Amino acid sequence: MIFYPAIDLKDGNAVRLVHGDMKKATIFNEDPAAQAVEFVNAGCAWLHLVDLNGALAGEPINAAPVEAILRQAKVPAQLGGGIRDMATIERWINKGISRVILGTVAVENPKLVREAARAFPEKVAVGIDARNGKVATKGWIEETDVSVTDLAKSYEDAGVAAIIYTDINRDGAMQGPNISATAKLADALTIPVIASGGVASLQDLLALKNCGAPLNGVISGRAIYDGAINIKEALTTLND
């Protein structure tokens, strides 16, 4: 399993939210590129980046720190937040992003997701963020009646590289991931699933690894910054 350290960007800083609430942001590093390099030096083979302001605005806002990360951290990075048209997708891929994450448009404009997946094979992921099994969009502000599994299954034939599933109620709360829902989703799909939200310990990583479902990887944020998870130990746990 791949360990994806998260760098969530708000107003140019690396932050973490609680339950996706922009008013509950803790700044962990005012230099996101330096944070990315620290993760790479610890052995991480991928980075998970989110433009939080962009997710609300519907367009990239934290482009400068993302570009700085791409210059300084020489590992693949996936990016979500405010990517809602083909021009933005193409621009980020041309700048060196290895995988764009499409969330809101996966609900509102599935045709775009399919076109992008065809145009950029293995470079488009669908981000599914949910509360109580229902998908939320626009930076987790708007809730829909769309179920996680139904949305994910609708892209089975689209050629997307991965589904990134986040349980919003667990995100940043340090209460453990929603293992049963994540495993159920992964078992229902042929698309690789990446778990996100609530990972608080090495035990959580082990539980995801041993859940019986074919997970591609796991994203962790606050637990790393708070010191609850040591990256080298996490990598050993997932790859042992």
Rg, Cα atoms, Å? 16 Å
Unreliable parts: none
| Domain module tally | 1
Outline the biggest β-sheet. Answer: 8 strands, parallel, barrel
The count of DSSP E runs of length 2 or more, i.e. the number of strands, is: 12
Give your account of this protein's structure.
A hairpin with a 4-residue loop joins strand 8 (134-137) and strand 9. This protein has eleven helices and twelve strands. It is an alpha/beta fold and 240 residues long. 37% of the residues lie in helices and 30% in strands. Helix 1 (32-41) runs parallel beside helix 3 and helix 9 runs parallel beside helix 11 (231-239). The protein is globular and about 40 Å long. It has helices spanning 32-41, 52-57, 63-72, 86-95, 104-108, 110-119, 148-153, 179-188, 202-209, 222-225, 231-239; strands spanning 2-10, 13-18, 21-29, 47-51, 77-80, 99-102, 124-131, 134-137, 142-147, 162-167, 193-196, 215-220. The mean pLDDT is 93. The protein has an eight-stranded parallel barrel, surrounded by seven helices. The protein has a single domain (2-239), classed as Aldolase class I (TIM Barrel), CATH 3.20.20.
Summarize the structure.
By secondary structure, the protein is of the alpha/beta class.
Question: What attributes characterize this protein structure?
Answer:
240 residues, alpha/beta, TIM Barrel, single chain
